[in-house]
Amino acid sequence: MPARVVAELATSGDGQQLRVASALAGGVVPLPGGVLAQIDPDEAPEVEEEGVERGHALRLVVHSPALGPIELRVALLGGRLGVAVTAEAGAAVDLATEAQGELAARIETVTGLPAAVGVSARRGPAPERPIPPSLGELT
């Protein structure tokens, strides 16, 4: 399958199509502008909070040539979504902080669930940029 088709699936705005794109591309989806999206649903354990039903989480890393890796840990717990954004100190954190209200509002609009977004500067080593799938055919 051509990589452009995978990128179109990933950027369609449909969650199911994003999952298909991720599976077809081996978890690393090439996006326009040299950006790579890495989806790791297995790296984020199920989450629990006292008095609240068990939830689920996933880790998404967007590797931007201009801003470096931007890590999002998304958790669904008790009927609400929490998103923890971790980015490099400086421009990436500044932009994420400016956009956190808009991100929460868009998540709420799309999902119908209350959402909270927090932003912090990375304190440890950055996730390595994965090797993207071939820009030709994906198997």
* SSE-based structural type: alpha+beta
Compute the CA-based radius of gyration.
15 Å
Helical coverage, percent range: 25-40%
Mean pLDDT: 79
Distance between the termini: 7 Å
Count the beta strands: 7
Q: What's the structural domain tally?
A: 2
Order of helices and strands: HHEEEEEEHE
| Biggest sheet descriptor | 7 strands, mixed
Query: Helix count?
Result: 3
> Which spans of ≥5 residues are poorly predicted at pLDDT below 50?
none
Strand content: 35-45%
Tertiary shape: globular
Task: Provide a concise account of the structure shown.
With 139 residues, the protein is α+β, with helices and mostly antiparallel strands. The protein is built from three helices and seven strands; from the N terminus they run ααββββββαβ. It has two domains: 1-32, no CATH class; 41-121, no CATH class.
